[in-house]
Structures are given as C-alpha cells and as structure tokens.
Amino acid sequence: MARINDNYLKLQAGYLFPEIGRRVNEFTSANPSAQVIRLGIGDVTKPLVPAVLKAFHEGVDDLAKRESFHGYGPEQGYDWLCEVIIDKSYRPLGVDLKASEMFISDGSKCDSANILDIFDLGNKVAIGDPVYPVYNDTNVMVGRSGQVNDQGYYEGLVYMPCTEENGFMPQFPVEKVDIIYLCCPNNPTGTVATKDQLKNWVDYAIANDAVILFDAAYEAFITEPGIPHSIYEIEGAKQCAIEFRSFSKTAGFTGVRCGLTIVPEELLGTTAGGEKYSFNKLWNRRQSTKFNGVSYPVQKAAAAVYSDDGWAQVKQIIDYYMENARIIREGLTAAGIECFGGINAPYIWLKTPEGMSSWDFFDKLLGECHVVGTPGSGFGPSGEGYFRLSAFGDRKNVETAVNRIQEKWGK
Ligand code: MLT
Q1: Which residues, listed in sequence order, are joined to residue 104 by a DSSP beta bridge?
Q2: What span, in angstroms and rounded, lies between the C-alpha atoms of 349 and 351?
Q3: How many domains does the chain fold into?
Q4: What is the tens place of the pLDDT at every residue in 10-63?
C-alpha cells in the first residue's frame, strides 16, 4: 500500500481559515437569523475596477478569434506584464529589475510554499511568530521539522517571537539559520519595518549566507512615507532576498489569482559540492516543469492595474479599505481595546479584552456580536491573547461591527 507523507500528520489542526469557516457555519446553522459580519479571512469585498474588467474582457475576446488566440504562454509570465510592473511599480522606488528576474504566478500563497522546492531540506528556517501560517505549515509538510511541542512550536524550526515588547518586529534568530521569512507589512500584526530595520536584516543575511523570503503582499497598503515597499530598496538585497507580491488584495484578485515572485540573478546558493549556483535558474526550472503560467486574460487584467485609469481606480479602493482600518482601529480604541497595525496594513491586531484567550474571544465575538475575526493564536503561539480584524469589509458592515463591539465592551 502506498505510504502517505507522514509530515502532514504533524500539523496540529486544519488550516486556520477553513477551521474558522467551519465554526462560523456551525454558528449560522444554529442561529439562522443572526446577521453575521465577516472580518476574519482577509478577503476583498469590492469588485474588480472598470479598467481591469475591460482588459479582462478584451483578453477573453482575444481568445475567441484565431488571429489573437493564445495557447500556452510563457511559464514565467508575459514579458509585457513583467515590464509594466518593473516600470510602474519598481522603478519609481529606485529598483531596477530585469524581466527575467520576475515570475508571474497564480498568487503569493502558492509561491511562498512552492519556493521550498529549490532549497535543500537541511536548511535551517526562521519564521516570525505570529505570522502568516503558510510559512510554518509548508515547512512542516516538506519534512523540515520534528513534532510540535506543548507550546505549539515545531522541533527543528526557529521562531522569532514578535511581541508588544519588541514592537512586533522579528529579532535576529538566536541560532544560525539559512532561510528567514519576513512578512512586511506584516500579516497579522499590521506592523512594518523601517529602512534601517530592513537594512539590518539584509546585512545580517549577507553576513550569515542566508536567504530572506520577503513577503510584500500588502505593500500597496503602506500609507506612511519612507517605509520601504520592496526589500530591493535596500542596498545588497538582490544578493540575499526573494520577494513575493500579490494582486489579491491590491487589485481584488483573490478569486482571479495572480501574483509574482522576484528571484534576482545575483542571488546565489551553494551546491552540495560547495559551488555557487543561481536560485533564479532553479526557480525557472521549477516553474517550467511544474507550472504552465497564468491565463492570458488574467495577465491582461493584471497589466491594466498599472494603466493610469486602472491605478487611480485601484488606489481608491485601497483608500476605502484603509479608511475601514481607521474606523476599526479608532472605534475599538475608544471602547478601551488596545489596537496595533491598521495604518500601513489592512489588518488591526488587538489585545483581547479581559485577558481572554484568542479562541475564547473568537467565540464570544461571534456568539454575542455576530462578528467573525481571526484568533491570534492561529498565527503562532505568541499570537495568543491577540486577535485580528480585517479591514476588507463593506463600510456599513464595518461600522455595524464596531458599534456592536463598542456596545459590548465600551466603558
Ligand atoms: C489572510 O486572511 O491572512 C489571507 O487572506 C490569507 C491569504 O492571503 O492566503
């Protein structure tokens, strides 16, 4: 009989968001008249903007005609999409990239998981705690860890606690590591790294021959000037970092699926024989073998995000979500709940009232306010006692949710 990958059995529970969905379904079945407001998973609620939709339709229409039909595209994405992203999104930051360093994909969740294919299992990995759970779980799945301990930490993985005391910023790992995940703006805490802080990480990675996996899925939500949107704004980063970006939250593509990964040509790893080798070549090889590219109409739609109209329309929606974030943050703070984030990220990270555990607060919030959020402990043990609210809701719902929370907890 075929053996299963036993590493999957080390994972504690189901993936966080399906588990939340299960609990919410249970609640709504038992309480069919409850008006439940979902501020849990960071899923967008606004439709695609007109400029993007137009390009998407045109892409589909192209497929209907012999002369403009497209079959397989390049596995790495069409050059015209890569070039427009470089031109409109990286060059203004002072970052020069080649199209050959960019790989268009079906999203940064997949890429941040799949990237493990090009790293040896023997590499030591450092992960923030709390952080987007995909980093931890995918390392467990590939067999980089032992069992989980009582505190929720997996043997063999190195954790970087992000606490109120350290401003929710990961600190340098206590032992030598080879791969470091940084999520910035951070999911779930909403915190961002300054240029100096990122420079320290880049210097650290270079000094330790480590690779930074930099997840910048939320960079478009940065509102404060001077905060880096890309790790490549930091000198030396091309030697030590891979960056992930996503159209999901930026342009409402959570259901459409499009993201990208930058693997600079300067980024080298070491072979078993001790020679230097290009990660870009490996990722290219991996994508060409295991991926057939993102569909042509989706890439057309993605390119339209960077047209003048497209960006103005997309920016309006980003501002709308960030106004939601302000309403949540200020409304909860007024109710005496301590809040973090929500300024450079669409997530508000709050301290649970009355010292409740994250899941107890989840149940109470759902049961008494009919509001769904995400328990902080689902993002790592140091998230215990915290809770995440997403700003991607509809304005009326966000206001109602804040009112309900104020009625329940306001002094
Ligand atoms: C989240 O809520 O953390 C995200 O929506 C999950 C994701 O992007 O995969």
Answers
A1: 260
A2: 7
A3: 2
A4: 997 777 888 899 999 999 999 999 999 999 999 999 999 999 999 999 999 999
Identify whether 2 is part of a domain.
no
Q: Establish whether residue 109 lines the binding site of ligand 1, counting it when its CB lies within 6 angstroms of any ligand atom.
A: yes
In whole angstroms, what separates CA 91 from the centre of its chain?
A: 22
Tens-digit pLDDT profile for residues 208-265: 999 999 999 999 999 999 999 999 999 999 999 999 999 999 999 999 999 999 999 9
Question: Which position has the token pair 């779930």?
Answer: 188
Q: Are residues 87 and 223 in the same domain?
A: yes
Query: What atom of ligand 1 comes closest to residue 41's alpha carbon?
Result: 2
Residues 42, 102 share a domain:
no
pTM of the predicted protein model: 0.97
Rg (CA), the chain: 21
User: Of the residues 16, 44, 187, 215, which should be mutated to test ligand 1's pocket, given the most ligand atoms within 8 Å of the CB?
Assistant: 187
Residue 217 CA, ligand 1 centroid: distance in Å: 10
Q: Nearest CA to 34 among 404, 407, 409?
A: 404
- CATH code where residue 383 lies: 3.90.1150.10
Q: How far apart are the first and last CA of the chain?
A: 62
> What letter does residue 196 receive in the DSSP assignment?
H
Q: Which domain holds residue 364?
A: 7-47+309-409
254 Cα to the center of ligand 1, angstroms: 9
Q: 231 φ, ψ to 5°?
A: -70, -20
> Best of 39, 132, 134, 219 to mutate for ligand 1, by most ligand atoms within 8 A of CB?
132
Residue nearest to atom 9 of ligand 1 (CA): 109
